[in-house]
Amino acid sequence: MLRIPEGERVDLSSYDAAATPAGPSDKLAGLAATARMGERLADLQERLYAASTAGDRRRLLLVLQGMDTSGKGGTVKHVIGLFNPSGCRIKAFKAPTPEEQNHPFLWRIMKALPQPGEIGIFDRSHYEDVLIARVRELAPRSQLGRRYAQINRFEKSLADDGVTIVKCFLHISYEQQRRRLLERLDNPDKHWKFNPGDIEERALWPAYQEAYELALERCSTPQAPWYLIPADRKWYRNWAISKLLLEHLEELDPQYPKADFDVAESRRSLLAEG
């Protein structure tokens, strides 16, 4: 229900950021449902990692994109917190460093990809190079146009190599973002999360919405579809992304590898110890 249709024009204004499609009835039920998924998610993650020790190259990459305050960091905290952190590879992408600027835009992304058996999480991603780069005119439009095709080829190559890509656009409303920014200003413990530049970015809201619409439209493919997550309600955001991860991991159905040694003999040796 959350999947962006492939090849169709995307109009973000037609999506209700406070909706709860297919979700639990209310916040209390949503929190409980998300907690119940934790044990199953952890089990599947362990099986995925175990399978990699026997040569299974499969892994999962969760891509989180959205406007400021949409909940990328909150998703990492509340959803990825259900997993064993030793099997996760989390990367938050900031403005490119001078070294990164000297390489093609996908260079820094390839360095951060999950290894076989891991769950990777990107807080922002290669899509910044067709989002903020478009809004802030950091690259010529002709170059930006080529990047969509480069991204699609890149993601297909990942899928061909065993990466399950789950791309989530956290859709927050303009009004809800204002409320969350005010909450940060009104709480001294949250001042570190506020940047006066956030207000300037709000002035560019229409341009960002257009940039996201183009990215969702041009880069939702069979190998790497986009999912639009209504994000005004934090509990629903967390439930929906947990559910998506669960569905994808269950589809992978990783299995514990069979022993490559004589189990009975090893057991006899241990029992025979004095």
Topology:
Blueprint lengths: L26 H26 L6 E8 L5 H7 L9 E5 L5 H4 L5 H5 L7 E5 L8 H4 L5 H20 L2 E9 L2 H13 L10 H6 L2 H14 L7 E5 L3 H19 L10 H9 L3
Parallel strand pairs: 1-3, 1-4, 2-3, 4-5
Helix pairs in contact: 1-10
Number of strands: 5
Count of alpha and pi helical runs:
11
User: Residue ranges: pLDDT <50 for 5 or more in a row?
Assistant: none
Elements, N to C (H/E): HEHEHHEHHEHHHEHH
Query: What is the helix fraction of residues, given as a range?
Result: 40-55%
- Label the structural class: alpha/beta
Q: Strand order, biggest sheet?
A: 2-3-1-4-5
The Cα radius of gyration reads: 21 Å
Shape: globular
- Summarize the biggest pleated sheet: 5 strands, parallel
The first-to-last residue Cα distance is: 61 Å
Average pLDDT, rounded to a whole number, is: 95
Question: What percentage of the residues does DSSP assign to strands (E)?
Answer: 5-15%
